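Input structure tokens:
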């Protein structure tokens, strides 16, 4: 896509509606994009960041929010979630998903295309954008399918989808089995300046698996998925990205071997970025021991050694972003036998707290690194507005209390989904306020 076309697309996305002035007073302003970590005020005007400084005055009629003792950061961005609409509106809608995102501090999310019908054309992309505009909550950026109908046979029309507002392509939920199709996708996507986000899974190795293959799966009598099922596709994608010069983004990484391969690719200048989910940073395969279907996801929870490697990869920058892979399911679906239950958990409303509890409190990363992985890097990797509090940037802001301890109660989720492994767990870190385009779209005090 040309620079002119991209500017037109971004201008359409960023058009503010019903903005008013907001002054965030006395918070710890944490913006890694500016190496900023100071107690200051933040003034938002006309849907943009107007100023950051001490003792800023509030314009007439401005809303003043006391942020003392709290962190004020660029709005979080989730580059990987499933909003289920169209096709499964009883499970989640774009509106409920966008509101759940805001409750989790996310000012923007990228919606995966495995809907019914599949988001594989410009009309489907346009539908998602219109529904998100009606919801007037977190921004929603559609991700188009790589292949028509996600069948892995022929490429979808990338150009039309990007022109309609798609920010990436992916067949997530399904791997791109054909290496030739993946190569062509990388070449084609490169011309539009978008990443190809791949679900790395070698299907013949993963077939029938319900959890990580190892001692625990043997003890539980469940068929396992070996780490090589992920790693084979990781190295394939890296090699194809090296061949084509395209940008491959590797979804929901889960193994030590994948980390080592990504590091290998980056050391050689390959355009590879990668994400990890909060659950893969916090839980191991032992969570499956009670046959809890809320511990069933794809890729599966892995070993303590894998978790250690993933945490180190977040710390050293090998993993670029943290993404939720928010995947709501109906209660009855998750009540099946473990092997028959669908994969996935909801994650938008617990992501911050899980990461604070599992990464920040143990001293693995600090809050600046956390904001980098949740806000700044996602914007940079996917070429999205936001991810910074620089003057003139979109007024997308997250305010959170890093010390607040709370017990997760899925019945109080904004999302329609309740399938969370954190039910009843006490976590640290809570979102207090989420601002999109200068409008407060979520406030904990209103709950």
């Amino acid at each position: 896509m040309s620079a002119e076309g991209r500017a037109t697309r971004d201008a359409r996305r960023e058009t503010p509606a019903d903005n008013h002035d907001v002054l965030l007073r006395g918070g710890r302003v944490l913006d890694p994009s500016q190496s900023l970590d100071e107690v200051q005020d933040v003034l938002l005007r006309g849907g943009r960041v107007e100023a950051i400084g001490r003792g800023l005055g509030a314009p007439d009629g401005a809303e003043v929010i006391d942020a003392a003792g709290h962190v004020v950061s660029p709005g979080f961005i989730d580059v990987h979630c499933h909003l289920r609409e169209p096709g499964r509106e009883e499970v989640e809608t774009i509106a409920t998903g966008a509101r759940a995102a805001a409750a989790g501090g996310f000012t923007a999310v990228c919606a995966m295309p495995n809907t019914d019908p599949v988001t594989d054309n410009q009309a489907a992309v346009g539908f998602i954008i219109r529904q998100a505009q009606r919801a007037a909550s977190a921004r929603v950026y559609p991700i188009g399918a790589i292949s028509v109908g996600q069948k892995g046979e022929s490429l979808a029309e990338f150009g039309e989808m990007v022109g309609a507002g798609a920010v990436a392509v992916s067949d997530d939920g399904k791997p791109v089995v054909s290496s030739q199709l993946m190569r062509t996708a990388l070449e084609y996507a490169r011309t539009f300046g978008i990443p190809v986000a791949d679900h790395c899974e070698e299907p013949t190795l993963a077939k029938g698996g319900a959890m990580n293959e190892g001692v625990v799966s043997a003890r539980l009598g469940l068929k396992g998925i070996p780490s090589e099922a992920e790693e084979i596709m990781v190295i394939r994608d890296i090699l194809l990205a090296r061949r084509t010069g395209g940008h491959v983004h590797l979804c929901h990484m889960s193994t030590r071997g994948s980390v080592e391969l990504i590091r290998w690719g980056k050391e050689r200048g390959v355009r590879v970025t990668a994400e990890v989910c909060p659950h893969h940073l916090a839980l191991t395969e032992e969570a499956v021991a009670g046959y809890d279907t809320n511990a069933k996801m794809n890729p599966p929870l892995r070993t303590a050694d894998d978790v250690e490697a993933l945490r180190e990869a977040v710390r050293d920058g090998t993993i670029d972003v943290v993404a939720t892979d928010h995947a709501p399911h109906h209660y009855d679906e998750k009540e099946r036998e473990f092997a028959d239950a669908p994969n996935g958990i909801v994650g938008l409303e617990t992501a911050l707290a899980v990461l604070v509890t599992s990464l920040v409190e143990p001293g693995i990363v600090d809050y600046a690194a956390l904001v980098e992985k949740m806000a700044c890097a996602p914007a940079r990797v996917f070429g999205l507005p936001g991810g910074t509090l620089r003057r003139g940037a979109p007024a997308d802001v997250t305010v959170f209390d890093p010390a607040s301890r709370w017990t997760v109660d899925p019945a109080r989720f904004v999302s329609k989904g309740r399938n969370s492994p954190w039910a009843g767990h006490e976590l640290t870190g809570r979102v207090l306020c989420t601002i999109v385009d200068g409008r407060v779209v979520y406030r904990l005090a209103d709950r």
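The CA atoms of residues 179 and 236 lie 8 Å apart. The mean pLDDT is 95.
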